[in-house]
Amino acid sequence: MHNVVPIEPKKRIEILDVLRGFALLGIIFNNILYFSGYSFIPLNDLRLTPTFQTDEKIYQLLDIIVTGKFYTLFSMLFAAGFYLQLSRYGNNNTGFLKTYRRRLLILLLIGLIHVLIWFGDILFLYALIGFILILFRNIKTKIIFRWSLFFLLLPVIIDFILLPFFSTPDTLVAGHHDPAAHTNYPDMTAEEVVETFRYGTIRELFVLNIHNYIWKWLSYLLSRRIFTVLGTFLLGYYLCATGFFQERTKSTKLLIFSFIIGLSASVATGISGGSQFRFPPTLYDILYKILLLAGQIFLCFFYITLIYKIVQTPCGKRMLSYLKPVGRMALTNYISQTLLLIIVFYNFGFDLFGKLSLIAVCGIAVSVLVFQIIVSNIWLKYFRFGPLEWIWRCLTYNKRLKIRYE
After folding, report:
1. Domains in the chain, number
2. Measured between alpha carbons, how far is 33 from 239 in angstroms, rounded to an integer?
3. Which of 5, 11, 288, 310 is least surrounded, with the fewest CB atoms within 10 Å of its CB?
4. What is the pLDDT of residues 36-75, one digit of tens each?
């Protein structure tokens, strides 16, 4: 049995760390829509603000180029990391698998703690899907790809199966409606959600966060997102196994093709009139899910290829090298984004929830990212791991690892 040890920083694949850092840049623009309150504020109130028209254009732009795309990239990279670690041990991987399961268990616990303060946590879900990913480790690469396609398309397949049993003439029209806010809950009005975020006690904010997290998981049942995440994991595993991140990202044809398909599908998603949460599903909902999936996957390929192209130029390599430490400290930066945004927007911090235009909100996101880039680059000059990465590794390997460079 191999002695299982953590991967040294020098042995990491740099492009993957750059991509992780890039993914975190996109994730904050997705999450800050909720932290700032923009997604919860009643649309009637937003329409009264002087910046509404500009803010909505920014919101639509973010929906096209950000929403779902960077979480898709993060999911692929998570699975790619598993493949790289697994490949170090070949067939003699019993010790590694035991350690990796412990690693996932620790991540599960970190996710549970994170859930208590942020309903948008992804770590808990990633850890759960990670346990399933392990089961596919001995399957041939080409079969992995087929499984990936199956799980990615499974929500649509289920909708097609359900359609004959539920569809009526009324359900075959586009599902355009006028929502109260960009994000709505069946058991709370948009005004009640905003009121709690603005004036609620810490206990009330905690209860609302758990409430939102429960509805998030209920939405997973309607959208069957768990299947999609598993399919994305398997796709990331397949791409890493076939050398995509090291070689195939050089393709200019892929860059252009993925951009055209991804952007077109993302734009079409917004005008399709469908929903991923409606039950029973309609034909428009099925079309919506197909377009949504295509937009997320192909724009993700575009971002990967684009980053690779930029890194190949001297100027681009120098510029994007600052993202590498952000990617190496992905866990620390992901959690710290939550803490920083809570301090900025919640009423026990700077109390800016619902008080800023979306332009200003995006400015705060940029400021947080600049701060994290600076801190990550300084930190890794003196330390081998980020603080949470170090804790995660110590718990995983059940020993105190050296954190400072000697």
Report:
1. 1
2. 31
3. 11
4. 999 999 999 999 999 999 999 999 999 999 999 999 999 9
* Cα separation of the two ends of the chain: 29
Cβ atoms of 83 and 46 within 8 Å: the answer is no
Task: Name the CA dihedral angle for 41, 197, 25, 152, rounded to a multiple of 10 degrees.
Answer: -70
Q: What is the pLDDT of residues 273-316, one digit of tens each?
A: 889 988 888 899 999 999 999 999 999 999 999 999 999 899 99
Q: Are 183 and 41 in contact (CB under 8 A)?
A: no
Residue 86's contacts (CB-CB under 8 Å, 6 or more residues apart) are 93, 96, 100, 137
pLDDT in tens, 107-152: 999 999 999 999 999 999 999 999 999 999 999 999 999 999 999 9
Q: DSSP secondary structure string, 209-266? A: HHHHHHHHHHHHHHHTHHHHHHHHHHHHHHHHHTTTTTTGGG-HHHHHHHHHHHHHHH
Closest by CA position to 121, among listed 82, 71, 87, 86: 71
Specify the 3-state DSSP secondary structure of 100: helix
In a domain, 318, yes or no: yes
In a domain, 105, yes or no: yes
Q: Does 194 reside within a domain?
A: yes
189 in Cβ contact with 208 (< 8 Å) = no
Residue 4, domain member (yes or no): no
Domain that holds residue 59: 9-397
